[in-house]
């Protein structure tokens, strides 16, 4: 136990120091998570890249074992497949997350890298060979073991990434998962896994010192994907060494909250016709704040309580017999059902309108694709306006405006496009979105409705954000061309 405590404390201190350094450097270099999206909870720019502190904190005590001649160190170095899997894969997924935080990575690239890492884990012996069944004999997977293992690894990585929406939430959720795996590894006598979980627990707590509400730094995809990868890999090992009838159900229950949130998001977006990887404000933590009127910190603490309940259930499943396991699962099912009803996920009154919402969203997605494709092929600022102008009629807006600006010495050039149409006489509801190229503000894109609505439809809001992002990317390139060759692009001055 002394070794585990030392690993925990070393990881804690390294994570704290690294997170502090990264936070200060991110502030100095402008590497901030901007509060420029309606889906963001924070209201001011916050440094990101805090995941670097967790990654460094996790690896620091483990790397020290390669330098120390001890029984634990020799035992650790003997676990070649485990070390290669978690070191190589962990660094790989952290590098992917860091690239995404700095430059932005598309969904295809993320899934491609995650798939390769999951296949690498399978080749190293991280495999799910059977599914537990508390109501009967276990179900062997056979050739389905490979796709199931890959689905588990990729799924947990993205589940931790999706739940990272409030200060301290993803780190706290991961900490409960780490605690579960540590207890299971300890009961199995697995020294190496215990050591790894002790190090990860210290790294998480070291980061949470700066991330708990109000956060002064975010973990970013570097941290959330790294946590998901390590937890997915270690869960496979702890479940494989479990002799209970519910082996694979234990890690599923230990990570029950992020898994449940991810499944709800997939079902929700499929039913209403939203892109599977679009962002929204319908996650469990969002609904806790809106429907139960909880503060930011209170919502996180409630989620911690739910994680504690899932953890206790997972540990109970590990030591329970078949009948007890069935009772635990039924009891947890009742709790989840009550929670979903409280948060409005099972509101049947909304079911009748789902098909119409789905049809509208499919049409909206088609429109946004046409508009963004036109924006990306624009050869001048007038083409940008021509590309977005159809949105006014399609969304029944009373006014649409696009303003682009450029700094020229000590003054700014600006060009404004605007169109108006008869669409009601009520007080207008206006939505403004910044047009940004990287961190530089290039203008503003706005739309107004005078039909009496008091708030914008969430799907239309997401669509406008996509259009504004496309405008920013293309406008930045056009303005760069103008600076390189002023004769090629029409001046913004009017």
UniProtKB/TrEMBL annotation:
Stored Pfam families: Glycos_transf_4 (PF00953)
Keywords: Cell membrane, Membrane, Transferase, Transmembrane, Transmembrane helix
Keyword Cell membrane recorded: yes
Annotated TM spans: 6-28, 49-68, 80-99, 111-128, 140-161, 168-186, 192-210, 248-267, 299-317, 323-340
Primary localization class, coarse: membrane
Keyword Membrane: yes
Molecular function terms, GO-annotated: transferase activity
Compartments where found: Cell membrane
Membrane topology label: Multi-pass membrane protein
InterPro entries listed in its UniProt record: Glycosyl_transferase_4, PNAcMuramoyl-5peptid_Trfase_CS
Protein known as: Undecaprenyl/decaprenyl-phosphate alpha-N-acetylglucosaminyl 1-phosphate transferase
Organism from which the protein derives: Archangium minus
